[in-house]
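Q: My labmate handed me this sequence with no annotations at all. I'd like to see what the chain might look like in three dimensions before we decide whether it's worth expressing. Could you predict it?
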Amino acid sequence: MRLSDFDFHLPEALIATRPAVPRSSARLLVADGGDTHDAVVTDLVDWLRPGDLLVLNDTRVIPARLFGTRARSSAQGETTARIEVTLLEPQSDGTWSALIKPLKKVKPGEEVMFSPDLSATLTGTHEGQGLLRFNLTGEDFDAALAQAGAMPLPPYIAAKRAADEQDKTDYQTVWARNSGAVAAPTASLHFDEALLEALTARGVAMTHVTLHVGAGTFLPVKVEDVTTHKMHAEWGQVSAQAANDIAQAKQRGGRVIPVGTTALRLIETMARDGRIAAWEGETDIFIYPGFEMQVTDGLMTNFHLPKSTLMMLVSALMGQDRIREIYAHAIAQKYRFFSYGDASLLLPRANGSKST
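A: Here is what I predict for the chain of 356 residues:
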């Protein structure tokens, strides 16, 4: 299985830099078995059936992108130098791992100022990342970070424009509650309160799990034999309540449909031993063609980067040939791609027909 098997040409004009407004007005490509339909996200109420279960990732994105200064001595005396920081994840000792530009210019013990209230000291480096200890913890840290930080937009958006205040709303799901992600579970960005109410009225059930999406989700695959790729690890939790909701959906014949690849990876990690039960820990599960889904019956997801692990995941669900057809259709019909783009509802087995 070669990396080139998951490549395709994407016109740059199809990369979305802002989301649809309102959220649920985004387009929705429905891949119903071998059939392809063009819809909008609000049409989910027609494609989902009473008894189906949506699995929602309730992670909350932190404003992990920081711009600071450090003092430095030069021939002109004491000056300041600009530092860019993207927080990655907290460590057990209270420090944060972070991408720092330029890391080589910052020395251990040196302080970086982000705002009058927020600063951090570099305690060391590891594998190209810096370890930062902040001057604040707990709620004080959260409040200062909310003021000083910007949303960590994906590289393909950040290359086109800087994050702004609007992104603090746009790049967050309406049900976000457990802080810790540095990237959004983007398929979930299409839901608003009106759509959630309509789905509930339809008889569609929902449950929440937590997977803190890390910056590793954007790391490129660098090996040609994709089976040798090493996935990044992310922390997740499936509560006893969520596990029970999934088990009950299965028992009543409903479909379990995760919203986003993060929720899918988490529930498939939970079910690797064939059991549906509460689970917590770090997962580095790698899903590519040949992978047998244990609990997933369908997936709502955005359109993904060529040659990415997420392309491999949707190919595992739908089959490589079918995914090529779906993506060719999406490009021909000018669907918007990536984090702020349009959505797809992938159903490996035909729904029969659109619900009425």
